[in-house]
Amino acid sequence: MKILWVKTDFLHPTTRGGQIRTLEMVKRLHAKHELHYLTFEDTQNTEGARRAGEYSSRQYAVPHVVPSKRSLAFAGQLVTGLFARLPLAVGRYESPAMRRKISELMRSERFDSIVCDFLAPAANFEDPSQCVLFQHNVETILWQRHTQNASDPLRRAYFHLQAQRMFAFERHICRSAAGVVAVSDADAGLMRSIFGATRVTAVPTGVDVPYFTPQAHAAGTVADLVFVGSMDWMPNSDGILYFVDQILPLIRRKRPNCSLAIVGRAPGPEIRALAERDPLVQVTGTVPDVRPYLWGSAVSIVPLRVGGGTRLKIYEAMAARTPVVSTMIGAEGLHVESPRDIHIADTPDTFANACLHLLDDDAERTRLADTGYELVATKFSWDHVTRCFEQAMGIPVAAT
């Protein structure tokens, strides 16, 4: 089979959950099929283009500048976003060059299947019915939650406007696409109910269990609590600021020396300031390997208030045998059960108490680590997930 895979970025360095999910699948698809990969050129990232041959037969990169969220150009996009046709999170990736390249490749290569990876590249398809949309989040829900949690009226009004535009665009694409792959049953149900989409398939999230399983030489203590996630993704930064402001002080009343490691790419000034004012908080920025931070911490926290899709960070922590405390939104879409293999807590008090319980009770920490590990090891391998994805694309899959 010949597959065209369209995304807005290369997959290395692999620092975000969506990249991990895509990379694990395209590597396995590439082993069995002819996979062509189309994305935007990134002159600042030579590794991405250099390593694309690891997961694709042919690669294409078209010029397009996506301004950094801390740049003046992005500030200008925020202003023009008040009047734009598309939601800002999509319009930043609208590209005539990408649109022309997709059309050209579709004429010349005769693909058996075309995948639009994430919602943003869909703006560059002349006819969305020709592609399968791989939808890692329900973007409309994410923006609605941003609106609900906005810190001031101006932000709330802006987020509300973006949520309305996102709903209109996402609804159109989900209804028009040849098929939609959701990353959880919960997301698939939302797409059916709020968009009226009928061709939706849920494909679970996987995890590389052997990679994350603790080794005999695993690192020593890093911190009591660890948060792993890209810090330039707003739900992550919002979640950790909420945790430090409202939950950590409650934990410190009983454990004054409780330490926290915040591990993830591109922390902004607000996140870096957490470590500057608290010696028990470390902010790492990008790290070459997150595993030592999981292995060296007692509890993995996922205090998200906003988000969608599924949380790779939770399955990775479970594979690393690190017990997890999460909000319900943080674990949304995962096949987990509290308190069997995770602790779910949605208020500052209950979240703090769940963390304290695990920090104080070695037996409960071991029990939760064991049940979480068993869950991911038996049900969520990437090979199984990729077979499910092939079926969603209409590719015949041999029985195993």
What does this structure look like?
Helix 13 (312-319) links the parallel strand 11 (297-302) and strand 12 (324-326). It is built from 16 helices and 13 strands. The protein has two domains: 2-206 and 382-392, Glycogen Phosphorylase B (Rossmann fold), CATH 3.40.50; 209-379, Rossmann fold (3-Layer(aba) Sandwich), CATH 3.40.50.2000. It has a seven-stranded parallel sheet, sandwiched between helices. It is α/β, with parallel strands linked by helices and 400 residues long.
Descriptive key words:
single chain; 16 helices; Rossmann fold; 46% helix; six-stranded parallel beta sheet; 400 residues; alpha/beta
Concise structural overview:
This protein is α/β, with parallel strands linked by helices. It has helices at 17-30, 46-51, 72-80, 88-91, 96-109, 139-149, 153-176, 185-195, 209-212, 234-254, 269-277, 291-295, 312-319, 348-360, 362-379, 382-392, and strands at 2-6, 34-40, 58-62, 113-117, 132-135, 179-182, 200-202, 223-228, 260-263, 281-285, 297-302, 324-326, 343-344.
Superfamily (CATH H level) name of the largest domain: Glycogen Phosphorylase B
Spatial order of the strands forming the largest sheet: 3-2-1-4-5-6-7
Mean pLDDT: 91
Radius of gyration using CA atoms only? 21 Å
**Helices and strands: which structural class?**
alpha/beta
Q: Tell me what the CATH architecture of the largest domain is.
A: 3-Layer(aba) Sandwich
The SSE string, one letter per element, is EHEHEHHHEEHHEHEHEHEHEHEHEEHHH
Main beta-sheet annotation: 7 strands, parallel
Give the class-level CATH name of the largest domain: Alpha Beta
Gap from first CA to last CA:
19 Å
**Count of individual domains:** 2
Number of strands: 13
